[in-house]
Amino acid sequence: MCLFSLLHLLDGMSWVWALMTLLDPKLSLANLIYIGYKGNPAAALHVTRKRSLNRKKQTTERNVFQCYVFGSKLAGKSALLYSLLGRPFSNNYVPTTVEQYAANVIELKGVRMVTRKILILREIPEERLPELLSNQDFLAACDVAVFVYDSSDEYSWKKSRDLLEKVVKHGELTGYRTPCLVIAAKDDLSPLPRAVLDSFKVTQELGIKAPVHVSMKLGDSSNVYNKIINAAENPHLSIPETEISRRKKQHHQFHRSLIFALVGAAMAVAGLTACRVRAAKKNATTA
């Protein structure tokens, strides 16, 4: 077996293991024991810190990232997953009624070295979203949320924008604020100017990156998987800010400023009082 084939095989094994462990950690441990793993099976799993802490520290130690894929029907969600698996594009439409996953190793080329991360895409069927949002911890395992829309269909954009608003609101209410990206799919068709302009405007208002235009049919992914990984590696960026969150942030900043001002005033009063006491003692001694 040549070195390239061996590396390809190892890559395949790594993302299969990562996906299996994500879906069922207990099964992964059982499989390790079954194949005769000599070490401590539990030590083979690395428990990383919470995503909320990653956002505070503005970094992450993860090598496996899970991305939730939202979007309207016929937007191109499944094509995004199939392309990650290396499958050829197909014009045959099969509606997604249950959640499906895709995973693969993504190479990130840096200035001095190449790093390898595992990306797992989880496609969320449109009709299942209300049920999933009823779970407070729905976004707890999400590193990045992407919202796909058909750039040639205005209704598709409006529907995906509605999904974006619902997910962002859910994140604000539950504390699971997640980096978000908008993907304008089917760029090989004639994009509707109104949808393109509105999607750009919405991303600007939310403070996230402009939509990524892709065409899976033409094989033009615009490095979308690298961009998803990049968003996951910078968990404090690309987090949407709505008007409500901005007001909360301003209120928090005002509250902190007020506390600092009160503390400063108290220290000034204390200093002035101390000076007066010293002056009074000095006058009493002189007299």
UniProtKB/TrEMBL annotation:
Give TM regions. Answer: 254-275
Q: Which terms are listed as keywords in the entry?
A: Calcium, GTP-binding, Hydrolase, Membrane, Metal-binding, Mitochondrion, Mitochondrion outer membrane, Nucleotide-binding, Repeat, Signal, Transmembrane, Transmembrane helix
Localisation: Mitochondrion outer membrane
- Could you cite one Gene Ontology molecular function of this protein? GTPase activity
Cellular component GO terms, alphabetically?
mitochondrial outer membrane
**Pfam families listed in its UniProt record:** EF_assoc_1, Ras
Q: How does it sit in the membrane?
A: Single-pass type IV membrane protein
What is the annotated signal peptide range for this record?
A: 1-18
Q: Which InterPro entries match?
A: EF_hand_assoc_1, Miro-EF-hand_domain, MIRO_dom, P-loop_NTPase, Small_GTPase
Q: Where is the Miro domain?
A: 62-234
**Similarity comment text for this entry:** Belongs to the mitochondrial Rho GTPase family.
Q: From the Swiss-Prot or TrEMBL record, give the protein name.
A: Miro domain-containing protein
User: Per the UniProt entry, what species is this protein from, by scientific name?
Assistant: Vigna mungo (Black gram)
